[in-house]
Amino acid sequence: MKPIRIALTKGRLEKDTVALFDRMGLDTDAVRNKGRRLILPVGAPGADGPVAEVVLAKAADVITYVEHGVCDLGVVGKDTIAEEGGSFYEVLDLGFGRCRFALAAKKDVDFWGGYSEKTIATKYPAVARAFFEQKGMDVRIIKIEGSVELAPLLGLADGIVDIVETGSTLVENGLAVVEDVMPISARLIVNMARMKLRKREIEELADTMSCNL
Q1: Is residue 80 domain-shared with residue 135, that is, in the same domain?
Q2: pLDDT (0 to 100) of residue 49
Q3: Same domain flag for 136 and 172
Q4: d(C-alpha 164, C-alpha 160), whole Å
Q5: Domain check: are 32 and 52 in the same one?
Q6: pTM value > 0.70
Q7: DSSP string, 51-73
Q8: Domain CATH for 108
Q9: Do 109 and 83 share a structural domain?
């Protein structure tokens, strides 16, 4: 049987997923000692050959690989799913990589006050737009690639929508959370066609992952 191919988001989610694989009793030596290899085997006790193959990728590419069926499964943050969208099944909240999207503005400023159109700086325009649309508000959205906290300080924006973990960066820059937008954690996603063709294998793997979270 062909190994299930899983795309993992490089970095923190990669490490947390490999730790999960360890708890499942899988052999992750090849992933931990990857060198320059791009497709990495994951073994299981008593198995004849690898039971899975791991592909390490940037978050948005994980979605692309799963959508196009070159990977059966993917582990990616809800932040990327919310921003990028796509056609796949989201089957399991893995629980790690927890943080949140939040709306933040200058401390002691009434963000909701006044009648003028608000300007929002963000790396995640789709998430920000959906949030304000739910509130029935028209906003001007400016996409920022770097430190979005600068935008209110420079007078470019009234507020920001960004990922917040501890909130310390906001505090250090005189900003404060106005409202939480969405919780974020790592999710297991599945290619829609593979879910039909390899349903039993994928469900068994997802169940085992869930039991070891």
Answers
A1: no
A2: 80
A3: yes
A4: 11
A5: yes
A6: yes
A7: SEEEEEE-HHHHHHHHHTTSSSE
A8: 3.40.190.10
A9: no
Q: Which of 70, 97, 27, 173 is nearest to 81 (CA)?
A: 97
Q: Three-state DSSP class for 91?
A: strand
How many structural domains compose the chain? Answer: 2
List pLDDT tens digits, range 16-71.
Answer: 999 999 999 999 999 999 888 999 999 988 777 889 999 999 999 999 999 999 99
CA separation for the pair 52, 186 (Å, rounded): 19
* Rounded Cα gap, residues 123 and 143, in angstroms: 5
70 and 149 co-located in one domain:
no
pLDDT tens digits, 67-87: 999 999 999 999 999 999 999
Domain shared by 109 and 167, yes or no? yes
Phi, psi dihedrals of residue 182, rounded to the nearest 5°: -165, 135
Which residue range is the domain that position 72 belongs to? 4-97+185-211
d(CA 106, CA 110): 9
Strands (E), 88-129: 89-93, 99-106, 118-122
Query: What is the phi-psi region of residue 86: left when phi exceeds 0, alpha when psi lies from -120 to 50, beta otherwise?
Result: left
Burial code (b: 16+ CB inside 10 Å, e: under 16) for 153-170 equals eeeebbbbbbbbeeeeeb
